[in-house]
Amino acid sequence: MQALDRGHDRFVDQIVALTEIPAPPFGEEKRGVAFRQRLSALGLTHIETDAVGNVMGLRRGTGAPGGPLVIVSAHLDTVFPAGTDVTVKREGKRLSAPGIGDDTRGLAALLAWIEALDAGKAKTRSDILFVATVGEEGPGDLRGVRHLFTKGPYKDRAAAFFSVDGISPARITAGAVGSKRYRITFRGPGGHSFGAFGIVNPMAAMAKAVTDLYQIVPPVSPKTTFAAAVTGGGTSVNSIPDAVWMEFDMRSESAAELDGLETRFLGIIDSAVAGENAARSTRAGSIRAEKARIGDRPAGITPADAAIVRLTMAAARAQGFVPALGASSTDANIPISLGIPAVTIGSGGTGDRAHAPDEYIDVEKTESVRGLTVGLLAILAVAGVDTR
């Protein structure tokens, strides 16, 4: 669309400016403030920052106030910790920096679409709520979008939801990959590695749990996975540890498979603890396991014949792309699990190396605008255009 073409340089400037505002997990506030200022400058109404840090603004449609609306979101946070250098490096049309594609380009896309709608004097039948969410990545556990749909003022008005995350406009994510994440702490009496040899060791219980978990053969379809991911604990090389811990990740495209895997996993933990207590002396104390769930993302799917899926695929085809449906873990997981039609779409253009320090995007204008147009057409189709 012409407005996206004319505003492309400004779109690129927004990407750079927002990327260079750090937004580590649980530290999105400064970027949220900057995004809110941009929403205000674009003339949206009901601009607010909610209790958890989501930033939002409303573009009114021609329907009755308080009616069903379309939500379009991108996330503020990146996976990179505080202190990461987020300076954008330019090499021609290639821009690289941590978080530039996931998901700062998505935030800039929301701003570009608002500008294009206004430039074209587009009137939609439904209100459109533009939202920058917090907590999409890893430890955030979708806390922003979860609040939006369970406690926010618009929780009962959403008729459709677009999450803008990733790059490719041809990939349309209609499947929500659910996950269960645990931090298991194995505790025991501890002692000298020589003098107390023979007593129970929490490290042995943890090792047994990992070994037994990896004996599970999960289904290939629906794809179901697990990982023993992060570990720590112990005091010194010459001590039997009194505590060790490990974090585990389990995922599936199927809620039923994920629940079943979780049940088996928790049983493996209990069995490993009981086995270690039976195998060695408990004269100084026994092994126990503390199970802390640190992540819970629901699984689900928006059916392929849902209007939001059909219209988004049609928008991609109209711009010459060959769309493909996929599944992932994004902000769309929450509305999908609540039965609200939702998809995740790319912000356009090309790029790679998401979640890596050398993450990059390409902002060559023709391809970039073509990709942005897919999202704008899909939003207009779902919100409905009032031609009166």
Short description:
The protein has ten helices and 19 strands.
Work out the helix count: 10
Cα shape: elongated
Strand percentage lies at 25-35%
Largest sheet: 6 strands, mixed
* Rg, alpha carbons: 24 Å
Mean pLDDT: 97
> Which structural class matches the secondary elements?
alpha+beta
Output the strand order for the largest sheet. Answer: 1-2-6-3-7-17
Helix and strand pattern: HHHEEEEEHEHEEEEHEEEHEEHEHEEEH
Helix content: 25-40%
Report the uncertain regions: none
| N→C terminal distance | 21 Å
Number of strands: 19
Question: Could you please describe the fold and organization of this structure?
Answer:
The mean pLDDT is 97. The protein starts with a helix and ends in a 5-residue tail after the last helix. The radius of gyration is 24 Å and the shape is elongated. By secondary structure, the chain is an alpha+beta fold. The longest helix is centred in the last third of the chain and has 25 residues. The strands form 5 sheets. Strands 1-2-6-3-7-17 form a 6-stranded mixed beta sheet, with helices on both faces. The protein has a 4-stranded antiparallel beta sheet with strand order 4-5-19-18, with no helix packed on it. A 4-stranded antiparallel beta sheet has the order 11-13-9-14.
Topology, please?
Elements: H1 2-6, H2 8-19, H3 29-41, E1 45-49, E2 55-59, E3 69-75, E4 89-91, E5 94-96, H4 100-119, E6 127-133, H5 143-150, E7 158-164, E8 171-176, E9 178-187, E10 191-192, H6 202-213, E11 224-233, E12 239-240, E13 243-252, H7 255-279, E14 288-297, E15 300-301, H8 307-318, E16 324-328, H9 333-337, E17 342-345, E18 350-352, E19 360-362, H10 365-383
Parallel strand pairs: 3-6, 3-7, 7-17, 8-16
Antiparallel strand pairs: 1-2, 2-6, 4-5, 5-19, 8-15, 9-13, 9-14, 10-12, 11-13, 18-19
